[in-house]
């Protein structure tokens, strides 16, 4: 098991391009990011600066979101008809960054519901996910589908393991996988042991619940759950103090 830092939720007191180096200085060899640019298609200078920041820090980019609208309160673009062109313009950009940095996991947030367009959204999401998966396959990457919790994301339709897995199976591409976020699943009362054991798990993220704090601040038995897991585990929790002493318990 290897921990990587989600630098879109940790080290946020620093400019974005300084966060990979800060993660390295804190002892981490991997980082992940939500979409790190304001635009779905940033200019070449912005992309080059981001790639250089990760490379110069000596860390691996473990995971990257496709363009999302988290900063505006959204939950992704894949199912949203008004964002169809924006999302599709982003696919090659995101996959290009992933290829340059050896990243093999790209998170495709489904998108919040739009009243009256639910059926259209589900059809569009499958089309967009299949397209993203075929493009990602060319660099040996997987596309991740994530279940969130309905308390913090009431308009997001995928709020269970089954909901996410059903979408993955309906896409029908072999490199679409489940992003197993133990925090969100715990909030929804899911069986976390069963979720981690699902054969379609492609990446794991953690935060303790309730509160979304660092491990040890809540009620999830993360050490027991992750015992024997040998993949990357993304730290996607809130901790202004940046206290990583809890990791000693996992060694």
UniProtKB/TrEMBL annotation:
Pfam families: AP_endonuc_2
Family: Belongs to the hyi family.
Any one biological process term the GO annotation gives: glyoxylate metabolic process
Gene3D superfamilies xref list: Divalent-metal-dependent TIM barrel enzymes (3.20.20.150)
EC number: 5.3.1.22
Protein name: Hydroxypyruvate isomerase
SUPFAM superfamilies: Xylose isomerase-like
Lineage: Bacteria, Bacillati, Actinomycetota, Actinomycetes, Streptosporangiales
